[in-house]
Amino acid sequence: MRRLLVPVAAAFALAVAAAPAQAGLFSLGPTSVASGLSPWAPGCGGPGEAVASSVNYLNAEVETHVAVNPTNPNNVVAFWQQDRWNDGGSHGSLAGFSFDGGQTYGHSAPAFTRCAGGVGNTGGYERGTDPWVSFSPNGRLHAITIGFDNSTARNAILAAFSDNGGATWSTPRILRFDNPRAVGNAFNDKETLTADPFNASLVYATWQRIISPSERASQRGFENASSFFSEAYFARSTNGGQSWEPAHAIFTEHGVLNQVIGNQVDVLPDGTLINGFNLIHGATNRKGTRGFNVALVRSPDKGLTWSDDIFVNRLLSDEVNDPDDGHDVRTGDILPDWAVDRSSNPATRGNVYVVWMDRRFNDPDHDDILLARSRDGGLTWDAPVVVDRAPRGVDAFTAMVDVDNQGRVAVSYYDFRNDVPGDAALSTDLWITHSHDGGATFPDESRVTTTSFDMRTAPDALGYFVGDYTGLDHFGSTFHPTWVGANDGNLVNRTDVFHRAAG
User: Fold this and answer.
1) Cys bridge to 156: 177, 260, 377, 388, which one at CB 3.0-4.6 A?
2) Residues 107 and 127 sit within 8 Å (Cβ to Cβ)
3) What's the rounded Cα separation, in Å, for the pair 463 and 480?
4) Residue 502 has what DSSP assignment?
5) Can you give the pLDDT at residue 185?
6) Does residue 417 lie within any of the structural domains?
7) What averages of pLDDT result for each successive group of 10 residues across the chain (503 residues)?
8) DSSP 387
9) CB atoms < 10 A from the CB of 41, how many?
10) Over the range 177-196, which residues count as b (16 or more CB within 10 Å of their CB) and which as e?
11) CATH number where 427 lies
12) What is the DSSP letter of 63?
């Protein structure tokens, strides 16, 4: 089904895209709405999709990602969870595809779940989670999601591709399938997908394969689970997503209570792969690293072999809470985000950047957004810098990083700086800041949301939840922040996906 929403003057968006990069605030285009009401009916996941305590937030979108077609700057695709459950996952992953630079959107869905028309192990799952999209250099769009059942132990990493900008999709491919009831709780979690920017035949996927607990357990509970461990899994396609080589572990930190979450592959200008993640040491204190750590591994041969882990920095995030009543706000507090400079700027080309939430420069209960930079392909790292401008004692959270074709580094994040203590709303905004000196300084920021939204209207899934991540991509010198915001007080349509060009 195709649905077009919120038409806006095309000339304005084109003017933003054509504006030259320079120091100062971003020029922001109009805000558009990428999502709409759900195309799926209640109960579409089948009789086992819920238990008595399950709550489905019909029409609620969360956790959007975004990709811009490198062959067509007008083709912007957002990809999100549709109809979020309170106890994990959604009815499925829905795509909003635009052919006018993100002004209006049609909708489509890879058949990853029953609600989206999926069947069998390739898509007949009661729920879906963790949507991600990436374009190959030839314009083929790749999507990935985790399909899983609520009533059984089945779960799988599923990928599909589109050759018409997200309008229709291939039959899903299974990258990894588990049905582990007999051997305990094996769950594939927090996957991402990266299309190689230099070779349209190569596509990479990575995730953590965990043994207890499941995605629906508290994320902070991972560190303290009595029998928990996980390892970084990797799969590769060498024919543009038509088929995938067998998935396998590329990094294991042996021992219970250790975890490798937030895996994300990126590609250096020389073709070297990095896979960055949060390395959690739940029991061991190797080199003083008990807890959360930003780390990565490297592959010089397109994923055939991988290095030992390289330590970047500690990840000292704290939980985010409603400042009035302490209610949990679920964020990307344990997920770093990564970007590589593949620009034509000789001063910065090859730099690697990573952002994460961290309290070390704030007070003990609130997070800043930190960025660290590597100038040698991820081998060594500079000390992190604070990039947000939230006041001390105010949380900044859920950061994304990207680099444009001139080497400008952009970081987006939410914060609560405009919240009024004690009022009826938890006022939340999205911001974007950028660096013109290779990530050394971030002298200014722009407010992306035109008005604050009330986080208390968002679905409650282990806390108020708009996603563990947002979307941030670019074409040329124009960035495309894409995020989930709440429709204040609207309990029928709690959230939507929004897009705004920034250049």
Assistant:
1) 177
2) no
3) 27
4) B
5) 67
6) yes
7) 30 34 78 99 98 99 99 99 99 99 99 99 98 99 98 96 99 94 71 99 97 53 59 98 98 85 99 98 76 98 98 98 98 99 98 99 97 99 98 98 98 99 99 98 97 99 99 99 99 99 97
8) -
9) 10
10) ebeeeeeebbbbbbbbbbbb
11) 2.120.10.10
12) E
- Among 429, 404, 406, which residue's Cα sits nearest to residue 418? 429
Q: Domain limits at 361?
A: 10-16+26-40+50-499
Buried b (16+ CB within 10 A) or exposed e, 303-342: beebbebbebbbbbbbbbbbbeeeebbbbbbbbbbbbbbb
Distances (CA, A) of 362 to 161, 192, 366: 42, 30, 6
How far is it, in rounded angstroms, from Cα 359 to Cα 185? 33
User: Which residue type occupies 484?
Assistant: V
Strands (DSSP E) along 331-452, which ranges? Answer: 337-340, 352-358, 368-374, 385-386, 396-403, 409-415, 427-435, 444-447
Separation of alpha carbons 491 and 357, rounded Å: 30
Angle at 134 between CA 403 and CA 20, to 5 degrees: 30
pTM for the complete prediction?
0.92
Three-state DSSP state, 181 = helix
Q: What is the DSSP letter of 246?
A: P
Cα–Cα distance, 195 to 205 (Å, whole number)? 9
Question: How far lies 407's CA from each of 350, 398, 404, 422, in Å?
Answer: 10, 22, 5, 42
pLDDT at 181: 58
Supply the pLDDT for residue 187.
Answer: 86
Which residues touch 415 (CB under 8 Å, ≥6 apart)? 388, 390, 394, 395, 396, 397, 428, 429, 431
Is residue 116 classed as helix, strand or coil in its secondary structure? helix
Q: How many angstroms from the chain centroid is the CA of residue 265? A: 12
Q: What is the pLDDT of residue 288?
A: 73
The Cβ of residue 47 has, within 10 Å, a number of other Cβ atoms equal to 8
- Is the Cβ–Cβ distance between 12 and 28 less than 8 Å? no
Provide the token pair at 52: 């008595």
| Pair 478, 17: CB distance under 8 Å | yes
Tokens of 160: 């599909």
Query: What's the CA gap between 219 and 222, in Å, rounded?
Result: 5
CA 483 to chain centre: 10
Decide if 436 is inside a domain. Answer: yes
Domain membership of residue 2 (yes or no) is no
Q: What are the structure tokens assigned to 297, written together?
A: 């591994």
User: Do 15 and 477 form a contact (C-beta atoms < 8 A)?
Assistant: no
Q: Does a structural domain hold residue 375?
A: yes
Count CB-CB contacts under 10 A for residue 261. 21
Q: How would you classify residue 438: left for phi > 0, otherwise alpha for psi between -120 and 50, otherwise beta?
A: left
